Amino acid sequence: MANICRASRKDFRDAVVEAREAQEGWSSRSAFNRGQILYRMGEMLESRRQAFVDTLVEVAGYDREQAEAEVDVAIDRLVWYAGWTDKFAQVFGTVNPVASSHFDFSVPEPSGVVAAFCPGNAPLLGLVSCMAPVIAPGNAVILIVENEAPTIALDLAEVLDTSDLPGGVVNILTGHRTELREHVGGHRDVDAILSVGASTEERTVLEEEGAESVTRMEFRPDRSPADWRADDSQSPYWITPFVEFKTTWHPVGR
Amino acid sequence: MQRPSTATSSTATYRPPQVPSVDEVAAKERASRLATRSIKTEAKVEGLKRLIAMLDLTTLEGADTPGKVRSLCQKARQPDPNRDSPSVGAVCVYPPLVSVAREEVAGTDIKVASVASYFPSGQAALDERVEEVERVRDAGADEIDVVMNRNAFLSGEYGRVHREISALAEASGDAHLKVILETGELETYDAVRLASRIAMDAGADFIKTSTGKVKPAATMPVTLVMLEAIRDYHLDTGQKVGMKPAGGIRKAKPALRYLVMVKETLGDAWLTPERFRIGASSLLNDLLLQIEKERTGRYYSKRYLSLG
Known about the structure:
The structure holds two protein chains of two kinds.
Chain A: H1 9-28, H2 31-47, H3 49-58, H4 64-84, H5 88-92, E1 94-96, E2 102-110, E3 113-117, H6 125-135, E4 140-145, H7 151-161, E5 170-174, H8 177-186, E6 192-196, H9 200-211, E7 216-220, H10 225-229, E8 243-251
Parallel strand pairs in A: 3-4, 3-6, 4-5, 6-7
Antiparallel strand pairs in A: 1-2, 2-8
Helix pairs in contact in A: 2-4, 3-4, 4-6, 8-9
Chain B: H1 24-34, H2 41-53, E1 55-58, H3 66-77, E2 90-93, H4 98-104, E3 111-116, H5 126-138, E4 143-147, H6 150-154, H7 158-172, E5 176-180, H8 189-201, E6 206-208, H9 220-237, E7 242-244, H10 252-266, E8 278-280, H11 283-296
Parallel strand pairs in B: 1-2, 1-8, 2-3, 3-4, 4-5, 5-6, 6-7
Helix pairs in contact in B: 1-9, 2-10, 2-11, 5-7, 7-8, 8-9, 9-10
């Protein structure tokens, strides 16, 4: 079918450099503009719907009905998170009651560079479900893909490339998680790690390696393709692990 | 091919030297070949540390203030606050800030360098440029970076270029004189080679590629051409002139390649801060990142370093 790149430690290092460079510009765009771009991704995916359906059937062994369902949900999910970009700050930001004459409020800000070990199941939807909530608040992400149909990740890269997404915000590495996990965990310029379907060893390695730089960790179990399509596979609470809350105390007089 | 007499300093009789012409394709090929060496582990750490000691930590902006120069000097003294690392070779600032830098690096080995002779254009009468060099020297600069008069050079007035640099060299007194050729404005490698020779004949202690204000600044091939000019001058006269590429070197990996080029062209005698410097500002943090990576085996982050 195809020869797939097997990402090395140095590919990951290069991806972090790119992501770090892109992240500031991405997060300084207006939330509305980030939403526009996510929405555009959904549109571009929709314009290639048939091609993705065919690939899921041919490469991932889906039946046609399942494949159509997965592509449709992936499109909807991008649009759904596009809507959240300029709303999650209102929902999760707070005005805090304090016992002094201060106006005290907390607002979410993106963590920075996030590395995501993507699900083995649902080669398209699993990827979208990991990527969209991470980039929505202004993070840059490195998606690490190891599954039975990694060509779909490369097809998705073409979608991203035609969606006005700035270069470096989403980086896709195909390769073996076991070869990369140590370097991902220990990289001190990675702010947060999402790992879907981590083995016990992977979790231990990531937590030990990430401890020194206090990297944020989010572990989630993998789901069946049908469960990835379910409504509980998208949530604004999938955005919040990748933000930092900044609290400001502003003096007020009477 | 060599010029008959090089010892002469009598400016009246200075004749433009005959320098070998440079094969542009070969120079580029040679430079790119030297950029393929793989330098790892202990050799890399040694190279990185040496590069820090060879660094002219530079700020040449209109917006420089005493505060900014103080923090630059702080970084020069202790590049990484968390670890021991060598201090840089020199700090390079505009003339009005020399006294600030002098005070900040007092008691250390760090040299204070400054720019003079109407940097970066050099478009001024000779006596004004000489006077500026004298003022910078008197302000306490150890090293003075002067720009060559490209106006005269590109007009073919090589005798005048030589005379002017000789006058600047005399004015600089004990301070080291680094002559900036501004290779980005010289168009051809032949011109770079000729300008290098004229500057060395006129008494330059160092020849330097660029001001950093013109693109392209330092490139591998142009540095190679200048290094070869230095080598030939050494073979002719026994003098060891230093080299300073400046501008556009921001990452550790290309910086290490410059070291390879110096080693291959001139040998170990030039691999010291007395004979080789790199003019840069953002390079230092990348060197520190790489040193830390070699120490811990994990990639490091700029967030643990001061701005620079």
